[in-house]
Amino acid sequence: MSIDNLDNFGFEPINQNKNISKNQNQDLNTSDKAVDFSKKVIIALQAKLKEHNGSNTKKVTLKQLKSVYRSTSSICSENKDLGEVAMAKVNMFLRIMSGAKVKNLENNISKASINNYLVESTLDPENVDFDLAKEDIKKHGLDFFKFSHAEELYLNDEEDRIFYKF
């Protein structure tokens, strides 16, 4: 799937107006980058989904992977790249779902429920998850945008949106 085909996910192009201020232009550039970054994250997650579901009996959905990715921003320490931690968390989630041993999972079973597809912040990704995240970032070109909170990204699902009737 190309990035151009992702318009079906609710992304709308941002019109660049030549008569806007420098600060507004920076905001638009940041917003454009966030949209492009979000599209690439979705492509990366779709690839991970296809690989995982093709070789495991416990299937996952794109919605689950996006949820794990988004939930990371509230637990990231200041000295870590949030995108890397988020992708490492996705990798850890997929290892859990595949039945692999994860350090401290048994000690934190009340915090991480495989049956409900939750991975809480008390479970830290392992080195193998970070190594794979670095590969994912390089492979999918996810190194051009640094975000400080998942709210900056466009990873919400249709049912997560709020619609108002006027």
Detail the topology: elements first, then pairings.
Elements: H1 22-55, H2 62-71, H3 82-97, H4 127-139
Structural description of this entry:
The chain has 166 residues and is mostly helical. The protein has one domain (20-144). Helices cover 44% and strands 0% of the residues. The protein is built from 4 helices and no strands. It has helices spanning 22-55, 62-71, 82-97, 127-139. The radius of gyration is 17 Å and the shape is globular. The protein starts with 21 loop residues before the first helix and ends in a 27-residue tail after the last helix. Mean pLDDT is 76; it is low at 1-5, 7-25 and 109-115.
Question: What is the compact description of this entry?
Answer:
By secondary structure, this protein is an all-alpha fold.
The quaternary structure here is: single chain
Instruction: Report the count of strand segments.
Output: 0
Strand content is: under 5%
Question: Count of helices?
Answer: 4
Cα-atom Rg, whole angstroms?
A: 17 Å
Strand count, sense and closure of the main sheet? none
Distance between the termini: 36 Å
N to C succession of SSEs: HHHH
Backbone shape: globular
Mean pLDDT score: 76
How helix-rich are the residues, as a percent range?
Answer: 40-55%
Spans where pLDDT lies below 50 across 5 or more residues? 1-5, 7-25, 109-115
Helical/strand content category: mainly alpha
| Whole-number tally of structural domains | 1
